[in-house]
Amino acid sequence: MSDYNKKRFKIHMKKKIKFLMDGLEFEALEGTTILQSAIENGIYIPNLCYNSQVKPYGACRLCLVENAEGRLITACENWVEEGMDIKTDTKELNQTRKMLVSLLIANHERNCLSCSQSDNCRLQEVAAYLKVDEKEMENFRLSLPDIPLDESNPFFIRDLKKCILCGVCVQTCADILGVNAIDFGYRGYETKIITFGDRDILDSNCVSCGECVVACPVGALVPKAVLEPSREIKTTCTYCGVGCGIYLGVRGNQITGVRGDPQGPANKGRLCVKGRYGFNFVNNPERLEKPLIKREGVFEEVEWEEALDVVAGKLLEYCQSEFDEKQYQKSQFAAISSAKCTNEENYIFQKFARVLMKSPHIDHCARLCHAPSVVGLSMSIGSGAMTNSIDEISQAGCIMAIGTNTTGSHPVIALEVVKAVKSGSKLIVINPQEIDLCNHADLFLQHHPGTDVALLMGMARVIWEENLFDKEFVEKRTENLEPFIQSMEKLNLDDIEQITGVNQQKIREAARIYATEGPSSILYAMGITQHTHGTENVLAISNLALLTGNLGKLNAGVNPLRGQNNVQGSCDMGALPNVLPGYQSVEDEQVIQKFQEYWNSDLSPVKGMILPEILENAAEGKIKAVYIMGENPLLSEPDIQNVKKALENLEFLVVQDIFLTETAQLADVVLPAASFAEKEGTFTNTERRVQLIRPAVSVTGQSKPDWWIISQMACKMEEKLSIERESAESDALNLPESQFNYQSAGEIFQEMAEITPIYHGISHARLEKEGIQWPCPDENHPGTPVLHQEKFNTPSGRGKFHPLEYRPPSEVANEEYPLILTTGRSLYQYHTGTMTRKIEGMDKLEKPATVEINPHDAEDRNIQENDLVEIQSRRGKIKVNAIISDHIQKGTLFMTFHFKEAPANCLTNPERDPISGIPELKISAVEVRKL
Amino acid sequence: MQDLDKILSNYKGEKSDLIPLLQDIQSEYGYLSEELMREVSKFTGVPESEIYGVATFYTQFRFNPKGKKHIAVCSGTACHVTGAQQIIEGMERHLDIKDGETTPDGEYSLESVGCLGCCALAPAAMVDDEIKSKLSLRSIKKLFRGYNPEKPSK
Ligand code: SF4
Ligand code: SF4
Ligand code: SF4
Ligand code: FES
Ligand code: FES
Question: Which residues have C-beta atoms less than 6 Å from ligand 1?
């Protein structure tokens, strides 16, 4: 039996047990501890070190109970047994407890009133329950440990004078995070919680998730922001695609804190540092409060009325009036939508571009992250999204994480991976860099950047040759096997070893584990997609999953981890130039017909330009007006010098954002948008789960939700248009009904759901209860956690193998540029930093704007830690500080792209994947030198 | 790190190897540097914080190289009652380091230890191999005459 099956088996063996507690009969499942069953039945047993999330540790001994033989046993560590007779409250027990608590208090700093944990403190609770009083304390010599306050972390304080050594933080960090930043150190009276080298927590490998702060039963670990909220609003985290459920704590109109929602399907109460501590951007004084119009080079604050009027008037100049098919392509207007905005906003924005502006040119930053997934997975299995759900990951028999730095970019999903590994699943990490996830891996394959196709084909070859593939699945559910096998045979493992730099024994081992330890789940992200062969990488992944039958079943699948909070949703909403909402192709006549009728408008039957094309055409003067909603292409696009030129070349640029971003500064008009905490709507997370966001505070200044702005703008334009027509035709009675007069986000959602089959059964009202995973065809449908269970979404219903060939990246190292720069993300920053750079403290957790370099390459160039260096590519150069790290392969450099002071995207290569149009952000040939 | 590899080669890298491994390293290098503990963490898969926790639990491990002169102050019972605590604190003040540390210039290291076996001479300490008996705050002063932790002697 594989480890996996053993694990499953155990889960189903539990039976019910009867026992007595304080003379009353209770029932519990086998394997429940005495303390758990007491809590379940509403019986309080004093306890301090118990925490339902981690293994019981038995440190405080307060939960002692008496069994039938009169022995004292800990309730947190012992399971209930059939016929057990337990006393939870006797004189003797309480005396022992009282003594234990008094001892703890004696060694505890007692300034409860000024402690921010007061009211919430379990030590207080226990002391009060046991009626410990000052008199008792006189029996003990009071002595305080002399441990200095650790305030190094920007978000929480460690005050170990208050620590009761319960060990919950240690276990949380070890068992849930897998970070192991802290442990018990020293002995006896000197025992305390230490980091490696007993340094401040900031100097440890702590990732500032704050999970231990939440878990600490006393005031030893407390957040720095201590205002208690007066109300809490349930909503969804605005940062990454995990889509954690959160409660925003609010007092007055200020957000005071964030709490993980234990009911959140993706996170079950857990959060990462951004989600938990990254909320202050909402109340930041730099938020845009009024519309801005640039006059003679300076921004002037204006009222909404004026701003809308100016923009509407100006945009009308670029509005296509000829409805000739061929004309659409020639539209001089383009809209750049946003994966940060809600589904409703993306829907209305693409409708605005298509219906009102008569332009097919609508795209957004998904082009830069998962366009190859959307395209590649549609080709192979018919749906460009995670096939399975986040909470299945921990149940997988094998997890293969390729091209994803999960702990940094999808921290809460990484917790699922850690959980899986801790319960016996196998983990294969494939990455050019030695990332933190490698600490948990059974196998780590460090391949050369850009050689994924070769590596994955190698694995497929081993699986094929060693007969480890799933015959039944391949036969019944797939097609096109032959050409794929032939293409695979062109590369033997010796060549692959050469190309990838990975020992072929390791490739074999990885293939065997993946094929035999199933159900196997593949997680991948931008390390796979941001290449000129990004789509081929994705196809190589789905080939592997098809070959081993790891699709259409629970706990397996092909799982692209989407980066931004709503990048799944903005694709779903059709903020893409080739598809309408729900991936309905613009080139499908029936689809166009349907939408034309529904929207009462002509529509372009040809696809529009993708984001890089929009910018190129802007540079050439063919695109003249651009409307950008909530994006900052000036930092996120490759080769930003040229992006800047393109945007400057426009006749008219409107930017709608919450801050005056680098891009907004170039705009003619800037419209102030409301943040996620100030509006209603929905986000769709990476597992296709549609979730509500709710307004928690009132809008900043005069900012408005994006959907409101577009709706008003569109109505204004409709009005102007009809006046024009009226005067032309003097036919005032025959005005078409407005297509944009929405009163709420819910109303927009309803319209969208009506015409989008995968969202058809979803409504705001249903989402009030819980998030729903698409496809959800009707209102009684529960949503779909696992895709492709019966058939694939392809025309034939079968999963399609694709023959592949290894192609090197578009830039390779040469004499002039001998190193390969690869870019990525930091745990502490988000995208172009528009939000996270405003959070005081994030910069403290990781030095901004650095480059990581291998010790050999550093030595060759006489570069030392922290030296200022200059990196140059064919496109530009930047200055940064060097960090020397052997986690980087020789010959490669690594940078994050968040920092405007040293924008990595000055260097990156705009060369595109011919199929999906994604630029090769992961690979640029560069040289670095010491300054 | 050649010596380290040699030491490691005697072990399988299992968790149970930890203590003997640390002992071997200490006897080879005289103390456990953070760098060495990191290597042990990689080798055994035991997290760094845990290694540090285990190592600080046992008094036998040191985390600083011994100074040119190593001072072991007794804190056994006899010395304790005759004021060992003041003696240790006095030395800490003089050298501007804590128990278990080494002066930045590498001159002195300080450590409190169990009974030195010369209780009649309490409070006692050992400087390198020499026993110093019946210590007082004044005799400490004499011991460190001419040493200034701020201005390292050449
Ligand atoms: S904040 Fe998170 S990573 Fe840091 S010590 Fe606590 S649990 Fe560990
Ligand atoms: S810091 Fe808090 S959670 Fe950690 S051991 Fe001390 S009391 Fe327990
Ligand atoms: S993992 Fe993502 S969604 Fe969850 S709290 Fe962190 S940033 Fe927010
Ligand atoms: S709760 Fe059981 S020992 Fe602490
Ligand atoms: S107690 Fe100090 S020498 Fe014995």
Answer: A 172-173, 177, 179, 181-182, 206-212
What CATH class is the domain A292-363+567-773? alpha beta
**pLDDT digit string, tens, across residues B40-69:** 998 998 999 999 999 999 888 888 888 888
CB contact under 8 A, A180 and B47: yes
CB atoms under 10 Å from CB of A817, counted, come to: 18
Q: How does pLDDT run across A423-482, given as a tens digit for each residue?
A: 999 999 999 888 899 999 999 999 988 899 999 999 999 999 999 999 999 999 999 999
Please compute the mean of the pLDDT values over residues A263-275 and round it to a whole number.
91
Find tokens 């550093």 and name the residue: A858
Distance (Å) from the alpha carbon of A433 to chain B's nearest alpha carbon: 17
> Which pTM value belongs to this model?
0.87
**Beta strands at A625-629 and A652-657: parallel, antiparallel or unpaired:** parallel
Phi first, then psi, for residue A254 (nearest 5°) are -110, 135
Query: Which helix (H) or strand (E) segment is A27 a member of?
Result: strand A24-29
Q: A489: pLDDT confidence band, cut at 50, 70 and 90?
A: confident
Over residues A846-888, the pLDDT tens digits come to 777 788 899 999 999 999 888 889 898 888 888 888 889 888 8
Question: Distance (Å) from the C-alpha of residue A195 to the closest C-alpha of chain B?
Answer: 5
Between the two ends of chain B, the Cα-to-Cα distance in Å is 29
- Stated as kind and residue range, the H or E segment containing A415 is helix A411-422
Q: Which residue has the tokens 């933190």?
A: A436
Q: What pLDDT, on a 0 to 100 scale, did the predictor assign at position A13?
A: 62
Count of C-beta atoms within a 10 Å radius of residue A866: 12
Give me the architecture of the A371-560 domain, per CATH.
3-Layer(aba) Sandwich (3.40)
A930 phi, psi to nearest 5 deg: -75, 140
Length of chain B: 154
Q: Which residue has the tokens 């964030």?
A: A258
What topology does CATH give the domain A3-137? Ubiquitin-like (UB roll) (3.10.20)
- Tell me which fold the domain B69-143 belongs to: Glutaredoxin (3.40.30)
Domain boundaries A819-930, CATH class: mainly beta
